[in-house]
Every structure is written in C-alpha cells, then in structure tokens.
Write a structure and sequence with these properties.
This protein is of the alpha+beta class. About 50% of the residues lie in helices and about 15% in strands. It is globular, with a radius of gyration of 32 Å. The protein starts with a helix and ends with a strand. Bound molecules: manganese (II) ion.
C-alpha cells in the first residue's frame, strides 16, 4: 500500500498527515535514517500499527493505538532515532495482535523486529509472587540491555504512559503497578541517568501510593512557586549583567524540584513544607566547558557559597554519565539557592541519560558511543555478579540490585591516585572487593589518608585508601551487615557457602568413617564402585556433605548397601545423636536454650553466627539434627526464612552457668606492651583466654583472641574496655 493511499484513508482534515503523527515528526526534527526517509519509515510503522490494533480499545475507551502513539511521542521528545520510534509504534503488535516478529521483519527490518521482540519478551511471562515477578522482570530487563539498550528505553516510555493513564484501572491494580514502577523502573531509570522520566514516574507513584500527602503538597506548592519565580529573577539579575559584559552566551532554566523529591526532603529533614528550602534550582547552560568555570567564578563573587555543597561533576562525572557543576550559595534575603552550571550536551545527558547518548551517537559522536558502552558494560557486570549467586532468592536479588541502583556515589583514590567510584556509605571492605575479590577476602583493615581504620568505617569522597591484607584473615557473616556494594556482598556469601560445604564434607567424612568402623564395613565400602550414583548424588563429595549438613542420616545412606546391619532398628546407635555430638564439640554444652515448652530437643548452634547468651536468637528446625539456634540477624536464617513453618521461637534459659567460646579479631596500631595490656584487660574480667595470637606487620598489628565468656553483656563490656585502650582500632566478633 503506498503512502498516498494511506493518506486518504487516515487523514480526514485535508492536511497531509493525522495530527498525532505530525507531532511525532515535528518533535523528531531531522532524525537520520538510511535509505528511505525517516518520515516515510515512521509513517509506514504508524499505518501498520493503526491497522493491526484496529478495533482494540483501552480501558479508557480510547482506541488502543493511541497508547502506541503516545509512547512514540515520548521517545520523539527524547530525540531518539526513527527505528526506535517506529518500534514504539509497533511495540504491542506482536503481543496483542495476530502479527508475528517475522511479519514485522518482512515489512520493515530485522533491527526493528528485534526491538519489538525485545519489548514483547519483557512483558510476557507469568509469575508466582510479587517479589518473584520483580526479580524476574529485572533480570530480563538487564539482560535485554546486552542486546540493545533501546529496548529498555522503549519499555520505560511504555511504562511512563501506562502510569500517566492509570486512573482507568481498579485501585488495587493501580497500587500494584505503582509499586512495581517504584521498585523496578524508577531505580533503573535513575541508574541510566534518565532523570526526567524517573522524576515524572516518581511523582505519579507518589500520587497513587501517598494520595493524602500528595494532595496536601499540591495545595501548598503554587504560592511558594509564585514567590520563587520572582525571587529567581532578582537572583539572576546581577549574574546576567555580568555575563553580558564578558560576552558569554547562556540560557537560564529554573524550576521547582518534583513533588516526590520535596516530599522526601520533608521526610528526611523531618520538617514541614515551609521549612524546607532546597526545593528549587537555577540552571545556567553555556556553550563551552571552560565557560562553566568562569560562570562559577561570577556566582561565587556575587554570592557567598556554602562550602560543603559545592560539587564538580564535570571533572569527575557520575557513573551514569551525569556532568554538571553544582553549588549552593546564599541569595538575596539569605535564602540558599542551588545553582547548576553545565553545557547543552551535559544538560541533555542529565535529563535523558543513556537516551541522550544515543542521540549524540547518531551524530557520530565518538565519546557518546563510549558512554553507552560503559553503561552496557556496567549493567552486564551487574548481571554477571547476580548470576553467580546460585539460588539467590528473589528477595536477595532485589536487595543487591537496589544497592547498586539508588545510592549516591563517592570518589576515592588508590595509593597510585586512580579514582574508584563507590556508593555512599561504602567501607574499606567495599573498596577492597572493588579492587579484587582476593583482596577483599583477606582484607583486615585499611589506611585511610595514612591512618589505620577498621573494616566497617565509612569512606568519604577524596579519601586515599590503602588496603591492609592478612593471609590469616577470613570473611565472616558479620561482614554482610556493613558492606554496601553488591560485589562485596555476593563475594562474601559465595565464600561462606563454600566454607559451609567444606565443613559439611569434613564432618560427614568423620561420621561416615566412624559408622563404617562400628558396623565393620570399612573395607567393603572402599570396594563399592561409586556408591553415590546409586543414591542419585552428583558426586561423592556431595553425598558426604549431605551427612555432615544433616540433610541425610548416615544410616539412610549405608542401609542401601548393608541392609542387614540396619534390619533391627535398635541395633545401631542413632546416628543423629552421633552427628549432634560432633556438632557440639566446639561448644561445651547445648543446654541453656529453652524452646516453647518442649523438652529434650536436640539443639545445636549455627556455626555461621555463633550465638551466645544475650544475642537475640531464633531456632530453625533442620532435617535430621534437631534445632539449630542462630542469631536473629544471621544471614543463614534470612535465606531460610522463606520456609516459615521451620522457624521456631527460642529463648535463652534463665540458668547460664556455662561459658561460650568467642573469637575476636583485633586490629591495632603497633605500640609497646600491647599484648601485655590486652591480656591484663581480659584477665581483669576474670575471663579465660583460650588463644591469643598477635601478628605485627609494619605499624599494623592483627590479632586473634579466643575467650570464654558468659554472654553478650560481658563480651560488650570487654570489647569497649579493649577499644578504650591506646592504639586498638577495632575488635570484631566472628
Ligand atoms: Mn504498551
């Protein structure tokens, strides 16, 4: 069908194109295309989509295709290329009409079909729970980036328009979609630098999830806004004068922050609307990078800057590509005013993020391609990290992701002066894992700006960080409580899991050998060929580990091969109690815990968290070895919490006449009599020292102290006394 015939079918008012199509073309400007003109190509997509969705209606009663046109319009505003805009017009064709990917490919191009297919794949799966759904969505979205980042950009526009038109859906559905947008789309848009889309999404989410507060704000804002507009004119007057005198060309933008971010500020600062000041910003856009710094100079000479609010993201861009100078100065009448200075290109990137990179790439801008590659690499790495986490629960997955998507960033330096970007609140341990996983796994502390700091101390922008490692250092689950990056988290978890497996193998082997000796079958066992295959294990190791971990009893394994030995139930000693005795060896006594009125329960303590009296604890019903007691905060429990019926309330019993072994890791600055002082402090509490070893390396001392304590209170007293001692930097329980 030729364009001329379609004109007559579709356009009734005599103009060449329907108004909604004309708007897309106008917004696109002179988008580049190959062969066929961009206009003709997009027109064919428009006609095809309109025909394909013919007769379908939205919940609002409008023709379905209006949605596709709106999505394309959002992308045209962002100056995306003609293929992306055409794909937007056709993004629901494969999912909702009789046409296939093949049809689209035949009619248009492989590239366009691939984009449509990518968007379709992002939305066509059934999920079990909300959380699963989010995690699956996220994974798919991240993976789709690896193919073509435009798939995500189209999906964002699709979601934005759906959010704009939510009012036609039932309230429950509105809230569900708003939550999903809050948890999945907004953070990812943030990470990709698409701030304009992100803040519109956030405002729409805010309207739905916090209707009361949002209505209240809406009433309050107009008055402030009117005042603000006048105020900004006054503020800018001398600036503009100065700019004109020096011959700089600039455009000025000023605007109120989004409703949602104002709401966040009120919440964070715990202040009423009237007392929140930093809710508007003035933006000055200039032609050249050098001019940014001159303008900054003008502003600082006219108004007093607030020191700690100055940030130069031009010299050091954020990892999503954001560049700008930000400064806050004291304006007329003493009000603080945030000023952003940047070039046009920086401004586009700040608003549209990766979509702007795409636009600049279309104009053969080399650095734009590099910027896109950097984003794609970042997302791919994140997918890699997340995928190495086998059996990551949806909950953990979302957790890991949020860390990397939402945190503000700091810039710290290696001893060689290289910059590393880390999330706000990152610790020396995060830095160590960022350098290399091996450095992280053996990290014991760090020198920050030349001074020794513990693993969990916070880093700040500009810090110079040198990592101290020790071969004897091993990760433990308490690290998970303070690390901030998903890279560190996932590496620590992986290590702990591996460690648990090793321990299970060691213990399983011991139990198995002892049992074999007891039933006098050690020799026969040796001659069996791959017994694990009979029992459908992947390997001998895994079979043995299952005994050590308590998933299988040793008798249930051996009875397969030596049934006559297990014929009479009372003949063999219960192997679970054997396992128990091994498990409890490190701990003198398993009493001291009471369980919801049940007596004679088999109790063991989690090796992952080593609870001692006073720690908040929970019990976890294991397979075949009674109840394992963990600290409430223990990562292992968190992982297993999904199986709620296996969690049981436990408490420390009143009588606590026994002691518990606790390992303490000590980091200190080398000084005279350090070991003597440590020993004296511990002895003063009448606490037995089981092991004390100190290693000196330059001016750093690392020590391992194993003590017998009665409980948390005593341990806490000991820890604070040790920390008060000169030179001791950290005392960590592990
Ligand atoms: Mn759609």
């Amino acid at each position: 069908m030729s364009a001329a015939i379609l004109d007559r079918i579709l356009s009734s008012d005599g103009s060449k194109y329907p108004a909604d199509f004309q708007q897309i073309i106008d917004l696109m400007g002179g988008a580049r295309s190959i062969g066929e003109s961009a206009e003709d190509f997009v027109w064919r997509a428009y006609s095809f989509g309109k025909k394909a969705h013919q007769g379908q209606l939205r919940k609002s009663g409008e023709p379905y295709f209006t949605h596709c046109v709106e999505v394309a319009t959002i992308l045209a505003e962002m100056k995306l290329d003609s293929v992306t805009i055409s794909a937007a017009l056709l993004h629901d064709v494969v999912e909702d009409t009789g046409y296939t990917r093949k049809d689209v490919e035949k009619e248009f191009s492989e590239e366009l079909a691939r984009l449509v297919d990518g968007v379709t794949k992002l939305s066509d799966m059934k999920f079990r729970s909300e959380e699963d759904k989010q995690a699956v969505n996220f994974r798919k979205m991240l993976l789709s980036v690896a193919d073509d980042i435009r798939v995500i950009i189209i999906k964002f526009a699709d979601r934005l328009h759906n959010m704009r038109t939510l009012e036609h859906l039932p309230a429950v559905k509105q809230r569900r979609i708003a939550r999903e947008t809050r948890d999945v789309y907004a953070p990812l848009a943030h990470r990709l630098g698409m701030y304009r889309i992100k803040s519109e999404m956030e405002d729409l989410i805010f309207n739905i999830l916090e209707p009361k507060q949002s209505k209240e704000l809406e009433k309050l804002i107009p008055k402030r806004q009117a005042f603000f507009e006048k105020y900004v004119q006054k503020f800018l007057e001398p600036v503009k004068e100065r700019m004109e005198k020096t011959g700089y060309h600039a455009t000025y933008k000023s605007r109120f922050k989004s409703h949602y971010s104002i709401f966040r500020k009120m919440k964070d600062q715990n202040r009423p609307f009237e007392d929140v000041y930093d809710i508007y910003a003035v933006r000055i856009i200039v032609d050249q990078v050098e001019a940014c710094y001159s303008v900054l100079g003008f502003i600082h000479s006219l108004y007093t800057p607030i020191q700690e609010r100055f940030k130069d993201f031009i010299a050091q861009p954020k990892s999503n590509g954001y560049q700008s100078i930000q400064t806050t100065v004291v304006g007329p009448n003493g009000f603080p005013v945030e000023v952003q200075v940047r070039t046009k290109e920086m401004d586009d990137t700040a608003e549209e993020g990766v979509a702007a990179h795409w636009q600049y790439k279309e104009r053969d801008d080399k650095t734009a391609q590099d910027d896109i590659d950097q984003q794609v690499t970042w997302l791919r790495n994140l997918v890699d990290i997340l995928q190495t986490e086998d059996k990551t629960t949806s909950h953990q997955f979302m957790d890991l992701l949020k860390i990397d998507l939402y945190k503000d960033e700091i810039f710290v330096y290696t001893p060689k002066g290289e910059v590393r970007i880390l999330p706000l609140g990152a610790t020396p341990l995060d830095f160590a894992f960022d350098v290399h996983s091996q450095v992280g796994l053996h990290c014991i502390g760090a020198k920050v700006n030349g001074r020794i700091k513990p693993l969990n101390s916070g880093l700040e922008s500009g810090d110079k960080v040198e990592i101290i490692t020790s071969d004897s250092q091993k990760p433990n689950s308490s690290w998970l409580k303070f690390v901030q990056t998903s890279k560190a988290k996932s590496n620590i978890r992986k290590w702990i899991k591996g460690q648990e497996f090793e321990q299970s193998v060691r213990l399983g082997k011991e139990i198995l050998e002892k049992e074999l000796r007891k039933i006098r079958k050690a020799k026969e066992w040796k001659h069996l060929k791959d017994p694990f295959l009979t029992l459908k294990f992947d390997s001998e190791e895994k079979m043995i580990a299952s005994i050590g971990s308590g998933h299988r009893t040793v008798s249930s394994i051996l009875t397969k091969f030596f049934p006559e030995e297990y014929a009479k139930p009372q003949k063999a000693k219960s192997d679970t109690s054997l396992a128990e005795s091994f498990l409890n060896r490190a701990r003198r006594n398993t009493k001291g815990v009471s369980i919801q009125g049940i007596d004679n329960m088999m109790i063991s303590f989690g090796k992952c968290c080593n609870p001692i009296p006073g720690d908040p604890i929970v019990g976890f019903i294991t397979r075949g070895r009674g109840i394992t007691v963990h600290q409430k905060t223990c990562e292992t429990v968190g992982t297993n919490l999904l199986e709620k019926e296996r969690i049981i309330d436990v408490d420390w019993a009143a009588a606590r006449a026994q002691t518990f072994l606790v390992r303490l890791k000590v980091l200190a600055q080398e000084r005279k009599h350090l070991v003597r002082d440590v020993t004296e402090i511990i002895s003063a509490y009448d606490i037995n020292i089981d092991t004390l070893s100190m290693k000196v390396d330059g001016d750093v001392v690392t020590g391992l102290v194993i003590v017998e304590v009665e409980g948390v209170k005593q341990l806490d007293r000991l820890k604070s006394k040790l920390l008060a001692s000169d030179g001791i930097i950290s005392v960590e329980r592990e």
